[in-house]
Amino acid sequence: MLVLGIETSCDETAAAIVEDGRRVLADVVASQILVHAPYGGVVPEVASRQHVATIVPVIQRTVADAGIALGDLDAVAVTCGPGLVGALLVGVETAKSLAFALGKPLVGVNHLAGHLAAIFLGDDEPPPFPHLALLVSGGHSALIRVDEPGKTLLLGATRDDAAGEAFDKVGKLLGLGYPGGVAIDRLAATGNPRAVDLPRALPARDDLDFSFSGLKTAVATRLAKTGVPEGEALADFCASFQTAVVDVLVRKSRRALVREGLAALVVCGGVAANRGLRAALAEAAREDGFGLFIPPPKRCTDNAAMIAAEGSALFLRGKRSGLDLAVDPGLPLSPS
Ligand code: KG4
Ligand code: ZN
Q1: Element (DSSP H or E) covering residue 266
Q2: Confidence at residue 336, expressed as pLDDT on a 0 to 100 scale
Q3: How confident is the model over 294-326, as pLDDT tens digits?
Q4: CA distance 33 to 24
Q5: Other CB atoms within 10 A of residue 163 CB
Q6: Cα 93 to ligand 1 centroid, rounded to whole Å
Q7: Are residues 266 and 147 in the same domain?
Q8: Which of 9, 141, 167 has the most ligand 1 atoms within 8 A of CB, as the residue to mutate?
Q9: Nearest ligand, CA of residue 138?
Q10: Same domain flag for 41 and 68
Q11: 252 and 135 in contact (C-beta within 8 Å)?
Q12: Nearest protein CA to atom 3 of ligand 1, as residue
């Protein structure tokens, strides 16, 4: 079974071909980071135009890399939400046209379900069901109970900024450009995480929600007084900030595992690429004895292989979308 995945929900134009839901034959991601960097963040209109310019060449390269003919495909899977509406429209209309021209089935995929499915790609042992998923990206921070493929329960979510958003906003305050997450991760590697005392949001509360806006404000207030640090002090600041975010994510994940009686944690979304988070979770897993499953960094950030993986699973379960498939910028993971 060969499934083409197409992903254009934000600022990556991506296509991938996955065989039998697990084996990645081709995986192409055209990042728009350089296009948006001068604006300090993703400009939706610019993203849409860039997707229009890039999507067909990206698909051509994907098909060439996989060494298949378009006619060999069994289905075309595409992200239909959540995300930027104009960006989503480019992928969805391209996928529909392709499915129509080839006479192949179309499968609409939820971007968040795609992130959850990334862990099933490749040869590593997949996580057992049920498991807990920590989804941390630019738009979402959530703890999700995954009982079986497609059956999810939202246990906690962010009340304000998503984890990746906090990284990006603080990166901007520190003059590190866009996106801040990667730059903070790199600088934090050489910094002292105890150098700057920053607040941990909701430390005493017994819920599973996140809040990162207080931390962001604490950073802004501090920088307004002290100015932006440089050299070693900048590395220390990044390490301290990263640890403040990671502490909260690890603490809430542990709490959720215990509360739900789960023994496996899947971590996904762009922030799952963060080395500090990966190391802290590995230590927690050793201490508490739970199974930890994190995709390689390039499958944590947005990509189309994860969309093809989820599309394959949906296709096998009989899901087909009509050629009237609409985009939904606010598509929830599981309808309540
Ligand atoms: O999953 P993703 O690629 O896109 C969304 O669906 O949002 O996540 C992007 C987010 C950005 O906020 C970016 O700064 C963050 O993931 N990110 C990281 C790292 N790599 C990407 N944050 C911290 N450390 C990283 N290494
Ligand atoms: Zn994403």
Answers
A1: strand 264-268
A2: 52
A3: 999 999 999 999 999 999 999 999 999 999 999
A4: 24
A5: 29
A6: 26
A7: yes
A8: 167
A9: 1
A10: yes
A11: no
A12: 301
Q: What is the distance in A from the centroid of ligand 2 to the CA of 233?
A: 31
Length of the chain, in residues: 336
pLDDT digits (tens, 9 = 90+) for 27-54: 999 999 999 999 988 999 999 999 999 9
In the block, residue with structure tokens 């009989």: 318
Residues 135 and 283 in one domain: yes
For residues 191 and 233, what is the distance between their CA atoms, to the nearest angstrom? Answer: 8
**pLDDT of 335 strictly over 80:** no
Domain identity same for 238 and 204:
yes
Domain at 288, CATH number: 3.30.420.40
Buried b (16+ CB within 10 A) or exposed e, 47-59: bbbbbbebbeebb
Nearest bound ligand to the CA of residue 172: 1
Distance CA 79, CA 6 (A): 7
In a domain? residue 109: yes
pLDDT value of position 334:
78
Cα-to-centroid distance, 192 and ligand 1 (Å): 22
Q: Which of 287, 281, 288 shows the shortest CA–CA distance to 259? A: 288
Which residues form ligand 1's pocket by a CB distance below 6 Å? 10, 137-139, 164, 167-168, 179-182, 185, 269-271, 273-274, 301-302
For the packed helices 275-288 and 180-188, what is the interaxial angle rounded to 10 degrees?
60
Q: How far is it, in rounded angstroms, from Cα 176 to Cα 246?
A: 19
Please compute the mean of the pLDDT values over residues 256-274 and round it to a whole number. 98
Q: What is the token pair recorded at 333?
A: 């993971």
Measured CA to CA, the distance from residue 220 to residue 222 in angstroms comes to: 5
Distance CA 35, CA 19 (A): 32
Distances (CA, A) of 289 to 96, 206, 247: 45, 22, 18
